[in-house]
Every structure is written in structure tokens, then in C-alpha cells.
TrEMBL record:
Gene Ontology CC: cytoplasm
Organismal lineage: Bacteria, Bacillati, Bacillota, Bacilli, Bacillales
HAMAP family, alphabetized: OTCase
Purpose of the protein: Reversibly catalyzes the transfer of the carbamoyl group from carbamoyl phosphate (CP) to the N(epsilon) atom of ornithine (ORN) to produce L-citrulline.
PANTHER family, A to Z: ORNITHINE CARBAMOYLTRANSFERASE, MITOCHONDRIAL (PTHR45753), ORNITHINE TRANSCARBAMYLASE, MITOCHONDRIAL (PTHR45753:SF3)
Name under which the protein is recorded: Ornithine carbamoyltransferase
EC number(s) per entry: 2.1.3.3
Domain of life: Bacteria
UniProt GO MF annotations: amino acid binding; ornithine carbamoyltransferase activity
Keyword Chloroplast: no
An example Gene Ontology biological process: L-arginine biosynthetic process via ornithine
Gene that this polypeptide is encoded by: argF
């Protein structure tokens, strides 16, 4: 059994295939127990603080319900209301919160702020989304792919759209777990070069491809994944991005190039008529609500592994 207790979860790159597999198996187990009405409470008496500097539906509710189901308590902490919003140093905040809590989940802009929080906290810190990464989402996505495709090995993911936090975590996660991934983005919106290099370095049995051609990326894909064209914090770029990304819509024409039994995935929230048509996201290949539910099970496994 891998040693995960006390660790931070800032990026998937910090974890081995065996460690991620351990969490995925635990997630499967917890999901089954919940469906059977036989839940255990391994985090009885533990408290998770959840700092949010950006909006959230899934991350907030799945972490809060999840810690509660495990026997613990979740505290929603808006960064606007914390002293951090008035300039209290992150390091001081980390040291103070470490005295009260058993774990911290944070959603913010800067990955380095999350790293600073983790360096100064003596309790596990979980990245609930930054501009660079969304590792909790990809943990749930791996669970979903396992459920729909039977295993991760040999699966090809096509990610169509912005080379953003989702693209980055999918690339890193795929590389570690041995899935092939092709990312298609408009020129100038490709994934970060250093993160792409990291994914390529991590991949030993699978491929990491970055292209500007969505048709090339989707060819023979088992999973087609997309995300919003304008992420949180990029709202003022919405109009410009609608033009730039127009050829990167996941629609009936594009998916015709994938395997006939492809699965459609999206982290949500989605914008029908922009990055994906209703025919696809509401169609029979879509698993987006199973994927959203799996946030709960995957993060419960994560919390048990780190905080248990
Ligand atoms: N996918 C996801 O993280 O959703 P929220 O922004 O609603 O948390
Ligand atoms: N890329 C999106 C993901 C939302 C879950 C964003 O950062 O807003």
C-alpha cells in the first residue's frame, strides 16, 4: 500500500501510477459502498477547510458532501471573507489553519500560491483548480474512463480546445497512466510548453501529441474531451475567443472521425453551441453527469488517502 497519508495533492505529476491506481481502486470501493448504503466513516472528527477565490458548483458541493459522508466536516471559506483577501500573508494563513484543520482544499488563480500554502502548512493541501491544473477533475475522469472503457491502458483521449488547466492535467494524468493523448488547440492557445515537456518526459508507453488540427486529434479517439473557451478569469476575452475557437467545436462532423463507440467528456460547466453542440453533450455518447458524480467518489478516496 503506497504512503499517501499527509501528502499534498497539487499536481498529478507528484504521484506514481501505483499511487493513482490505489486512489482509483479506493474510489471504486467507496462508490460501491455508498450505492449499497454501507458507508464507512474513516474521517470521523476531521475537518476540511475549503478556500475559494473562484466560483464552483461541483468542487464545492462534492468536497463538502464528501467529507460529511466520511464522518467529518467541511468549512467553506471564501477568500473574500478571509484576512488573506485583505493582505494577510499566505504563509501565516497556512500556519494558522494548520492548527485548526486536518486538510485544506484551495481553488485560486496561481499555482505558486497553492505551492506556498502547502510549503507552510503542516496538513495536506489539495488543489481544487488553478490556472495551471485541475488534478481532482482528472482523478474523477480516470475513474469514469475506467468505468466506461474497462481500463485506462491503451485508451486514446482527444482534447479539443484551450490549452488550459484541463488540458494540462489531462496530459500529465494520461502520461502517467499510459493513455495516449492528442491535444488540438488554435495557434497561440496551445498547452504550456514546460508542462507539455513534463508530460512527454513522464510518458513511457504512450504518446503525447499537440496539434492545431482537431480532425487529426480526434482520429481513432476513444474519448473526446472539451472545456470552455474562456475560463474563469478570462471573461473579458469571451467574444474574441468565440471567433478564434470557432473551428474547435465538438459537433457531429468532428466526432465522425473518432471510434464509433467514443465517449464524450466535459468537466462542466458547459456552453452548448460554443465548445460543444447539444447533440453531442446531450447525446448517447456523453457521460458528463456520471463524470460529475465521480468527483464525489474520487475526492472521497483522495481525502481518505491523504487525511486518513
Ligand atoms: N468541473 C468543475 O470543477 O466544476 P466547478 O467549477 O463547478 O467546481
Ligand atoms: N477551464 C475551466 C475549468 C472549470 C472547471 C476554468 O478554469 O474555468
Amino acid at each position: 500500500q503506497p504512503k499517501l497519508n499527509g501528502r499534498d495533492f497539487l499536481t498529478l505529476a507528484d504521484f506514481s501510477k501505483a499511487e493513482l491506481n490505489f486512489m482509483l481502486n479506493l474510489a471504486q470501493h467507496l462508490k460501491k459502498q455508498r450505492k449499497l448504503g454501507r458507508e464507512e466513516q474513516p474521517l470521523k472528527g476531521k475537518t476540511l477547510g475549503m478556500i475559494f477565490e473562484k466560483s464552483s458548483t461541483r468542487t464545492r458541493v462534492s468536497f463538502e458532501a464528501g467529507i460529511y459522508q466520511l464522518g467529518g466536516t467541511g468549512l467553506f471559506l471564501s477568500s473574500k471573507d478571509l484576512q488573506i483577501g485583505r493582505g494577510e500573508p499566505v504563509a501565516d494563513t497556512a500556519k494558522v489553519l494548520s492548527g485548526y484543520l486536518d486538510g485544506i482544499m484551495i481553488r485560486t488563480y496561481s499555482q505558486s500560491l497553492v505551492e506556498q500554502l502547502a510549503e507552510n502548512a503542516t496538513i495536506p493541501v489539495i488543489n481544487g483548480l488553478t490556472d495551471d491544473y485541475h488534478p481532482c477533475q482528472v482523478l474523477a475522469d480516470m475513474l469514469t474512463i475506467q468505468e466506461t472503457k474497462g481500463s485506462l491502458k491503451g485508451v486514446k483521449i482527444a482534447y479539443i480546445g484551450d490549452g488550459n488547466n484541463m488540458a494540462h492535467s489531462l496530459m500529465i494524468g494520461s502520461a502517467i497512466m499510459g493513455m495516449d493523448i492528442s491535444v488540438a488547440s488554435p495557434k497561440g492557445f496551445e498547452p504550456d510548453e514546460a508542462i507539455t515537456k513534463k508530460a512527454v518526459d513522464l510518458a513511457n508507453q504512450s504518446s503525447v501529441v499537440v496539434t492545431n488540427d482537431p480532425v487529426e486529434a480526434v482520429a481513432n479517439a476513444d474519448v473526446i474531451y472539451t472545456d470552455v473557451w474562456a475560463s474563469m478569469g478570462q471573461e473579458e476575452e469571451q467574444k474574441a475567443r468565440e471567433e478564434i475557437f470557432a473551428n474547435f467545436q465538438v459537433n457531429d462532423y468532428l466526432v465522425a472521425h473518432a471510434h464509433s463507440d467514443y465517449t464524450f467528456m466535459h468537466c462542466l460547466p458547459a456552453h452548448r453551441g460554443e465548445e460543444v453542440t447539444a447533440s453531442i453533450i446531450d447525446g448517447k455518447h456523453s457521460v458528463v453527469f456520471q463524470e460529475a458524480e465521480n468527483r464525489l467518489h474520487a475526492q472521497k478516496a483522495l481525502m481518505v488517502a491523504l487525511m486518513g
